[in-house]
Hints:
This protein is of the alpha/beta class.
Amino acid sequence: GKAPVISLDSKKFKMVQALEEATSEGVPSLVGCERLTVKGKIRMGRSTRFIGAVSITNTSDEAKYVSGKIEDAELDVSNDVGLGPLKPSVVNSAPIAGQKPGTSGLRKKTKEFMTENYLNNFVQSVFDAVIAGGTNVSDGTLVIGGDGRYFNPEAIQTIIKMGVANGVKRFWIGENGLLSTPAVSAIIRERGPVWQKAFGAFILTASHNPGGPDEDFGIKYNTQNGGPAPEYLMQATHANTGTIKSYKICKDMPDVDISKVGTTEIAADDGSSSVVVDVIPSTESHVALLKTIFDFDAIKALLEREDFTMIYDSMHGVNGPFAKSVFVDEFGQPESVLSNHIPKDDFNGAHADPNLTYAKELVATMGLDRKGNKIDVSGPIPSFGAAADGDGDRNMILGTQFFATPSDSLAVIVANANSIPFFSSQGGLKAVARSMPTSGAVDLVAKDLNLDFFETPTGWKFFGNLMDSKAVFKGKDYTPFICGEESFGTGSDHVREKDGIWAVLAWLNILAAKNPDASKPLVTVEDIVKEHWGKYGRNYYCRWDFEGMDKTGANAMMDKMRSDAAANTGRKVGSYTISTADDFKYTDPVDGSVAQKQGVRFLMSDGSRVIFRLSGTAGSGATVRMYIEQYEQEKLDMPVAVALEELTKIALELCDIKTFCGTETPTVIT
Length: 670
């Protein structure tokens, strides 16, 4: 047949994108069409059939929907009903400085996020980057949830309305807006059916940073593998924030009730489309996944021993409902094993960071002070203690008057991975990775067990590439896989985020395997760690955090150490010799990408290390992190402060933080 003559309004259909938007509900049929003339903006779908000579006029500012069979007709649709609550509005805006995402998304003060267009600009910049990258947001589902901090409910409603305006048709929202970061990853990867699979997620969290109207807020985007957005996507997002002129939002769309599980469907007035918002049980997908990973029967038996007690502190973050679902609903434990498990939008005025300084209630209960030293406690001390941060992706592990450092915890889990069904059923662990600042304790285990080993920059996305080496990049299969960071993050390839409750269950699974006979004395957390030191030696290790430092001074300090690297190499400092001073650079073995300026290192000739880096997770100011490590094969019972005393003094001299930042006193020591 003869091709039809098509004349589209040159002002309304100047760009290809306009035609794509006009046919977002499907491509119309032109079979039997001789001429199609369009003046103004219209929308069409699969049910639209143009036959003969058709002319359509729309003088309104809203694109009107044309459907059904239209034959030899002149139509004026200007006064037809439109999308109603689903009508997108274009709101003029302008770039706002400082919207560059860090290692875990964008974090700023809550009040800054609440200023006009701040959240909207960033969300639109993400949508533009995601769509430009080839993702069809009209297919599949967008997940939204967060750690429950102040401004989360309002932000969720904004993102839903902007998502609809940008073409999203289905949403999964955590009940009450609550989803832990690992739970979001689990939902993306596990929740079905296939035709509804999630293409990505917005996670509203500033992780372990304080919450409340005067504290921090954050937002990050995760992609369809369940992991944080890759570097190229965040670079594109940042570039978009610098050029943005407007954002899209459905202003007339009503707020969705996210306080209870259920489905809300909102239809366009013209019947052309609808949007479905499913409020889902927050804990369902994640807990179901955890039950396939661990031996829940063995853990339950351990928890029921008369000589075993535990306490799990969720620090009023999002982890509380997950802890209740696992320990109360699944294991049948009394709710008294949970502490601070009711989420609050300001974390009850505390700092939801699971370390010896901020988890002070738990630490005291376990018979320790903020430096990890034993203290006198009236009454019995639990056998096992754990803490989670605001968004549930971090963990701290404690035994009776004993602190398992994150680096030792990672090494112990790797050494005992075959106790966990997820690994043993797949033929055992294949590979392990740690962030560069994390101690070398796990390196020794990897070497002993002949595992592939990787040292990466800080940031879970680097681990995600290794996990997806085969599935996404068609490279070597490194799974099953365990990874961790000294900043209290541990996880495996079951999701693409660190997972606090996973680490807690891993330890309980290992303890259960070490205690098969309830008639015998309990093998404790301390017993397991000290047995590990006896086999592999001990990496004495600590991290000093200097929070809220002046960014200019902190950056100047880092630049000075970088410029002095060559001069410091080979230099003798105290009883140590600096064999190498450098700035850590990482070439990703999976995708070939290069990450530079990842931390200044002083590598001593005896294997000791001093490392400095600026945290990418601070909401305001700069956080300087100083890492100190010394390996010992024989002296295994020294206090950490004593073992690292000389190296700590050397570290302070090397950085000269007193000159640049005005203090040598850390905010937190872990």
